[in-house]
Amino acid sequence: MLLNPNESSKENMNKAAELIDLHNNTLEYLKKMERVLINSISITMHNGSVKIFKGYRVHHSILRG
Questions:
Q1: Which sign does the torsion angle of CA 55, 29, 22, 64 carry?
Q2: Which of 11, 22, 57, 64 is deepest in the core (most CB within 10 A)?
Q3: Measured distance CA(51)–CA(38) in Å, rounded
Q4: Is 65 a member of any domain?
Q5: What range defines the domain where residue 24 resides?
Q6: 47 DSSP 8-state letter
Q7: Are the C-beta atoms of 29 and 46 separated by less than 8 Å?
Q8: How many domains does the chain have?
Q9: 11 Cβ partners below 8 Å, 6+ apart?
Q10: Measured in whole angstroms, how far is the alpha carbon of residue 44 from the centre of its chain?
Q11: Is the separation of the CB atoms in 61 and 34 below 8 Å?
Q12: What is the spatial distance between Cα 20 and Cα 12, in angstroms, rounded to a whole number?
């Protein structure tokens, strides 16, 4: 089953946290999204049809600026 990008990143974070023995409270904090920017762009395909694609940018923590 394919995961959405957010679920996939959380799964990777879980694996990394286990490897470095990261405290669970810190892991849960890092998983939270502080800011999400969703943008759409329309592209005319070779056959003349128009498709709309979404792009995402997520900040999980803005503590470091």
A1: positive
A2: 22
A3: 16
A4: no
A5: 5-59
A6: T
A7: no
A8: 1
A9: 3
A10: 26
A11: yes
A12: 13
22: tokens are 């990261």
Q: Has residue 38 been placed in a domain?
A: yes
Q: What is the mean pLDDT of residues 10-23?
A: 93
> What is the predicted pLDDT for the residue at 53?
95
| Residue that wins the pLDDT comparison between 55 and 62 | 55
In this predicted structure, the answer to whether residue 3 has a pLDDT above a threshold of 70 is no
Q: Is residue 35 part of a domain?
A: yes
57: left (phi over 0), alpha (psi -120 to 50) or beta: beta
Residue 1 has pLDDT above 90, yes or no: no
* The token pair that represents 29 in the structure block: 């904090």
